[in-house]
Amino acid sequence: MSYDELIAAFGAKYGIEGLASQGGVTSLVIDGGRVDLVSDEAADSVVVCAEIGFPPPDANGRFGEVMLKANHLFLGTGGGTLCQNPDTDAYVLMRPVPLARLEGAEAFGAIIENVLSQVENWHQILAGMRTAETAEGEQREEEKSMFSSGGFMQV
Q1: Spatial distance between the Cα atoms of 33 and 121, rounded to a whole number of angstroms
Q2: Residue 19, Cα to own-chain centre: how many angstroms?
Q3: Contact of 13 with 34, CB cutoff 8 Å
Q4: Cα angle value 27/29/35 (rounded, 5°)
Q5: What are the backbone dihedrals phi and psi of residue 10, each rounded to the nearest 5 degrees, phi first?
């Protein structure tokens, strides 16, 4: 099955009229999440891509470490790869799928569902990092105010 045939079959299976490739790229919005499907003709595969977002500024180094560990053997990514989009700096989950392994629109739908599930997991990880960053910032502000308000020491 070719990429264009897969996209047409997927659209027909899930009632998405007029779903077609535009220059080898198809974009979908499913449950509020955007998924880009990109044809990789050289590898005879389709790459399923979805944006995760941005870590808080103080978590960039920690997030990179967490991301690299998750990429190891694809254990924390559901078979995909976490990376950073060089154009936007947003973090993205990408999962290449050989067209020969896809047995129709239903199998492809399951892969897209898996990618969206992984993206939701990573949204939660990022949210946890934001919460931790906020708590650390509030603690630093509280410590600063204890020193400057006359509680311990005035400068």
Answers
A1: 13
A2: 23
A3: no
A4: 50
A5: -65, -45
- Starting from the edge strand earliest in sequence, which strands make up the sheet with 25-30, in order? 25-30, 33-40, 45-53, 91-98, 81-84
Residue 117 has pLDDT above 60, yes or no: yes
pLDDT in tens, 44-96: 999 999 999 998 888 767 888 999 999 999 999 999 999 999 999 999 999 99
- Give the pLDDT confidence score for residue 152 in this predicted structure: 40
* Fold held by 3-131: Yope Regulator; Chain: A, (3.30.1460)
Residue with tokens 């020491």: 153
CA–CA dist 141, 19 (Å, integer): 52
**What are the structural domain ranges in the chain?**
3-131
For 80, phi and psi rounded to 5 degrees? -100, -175
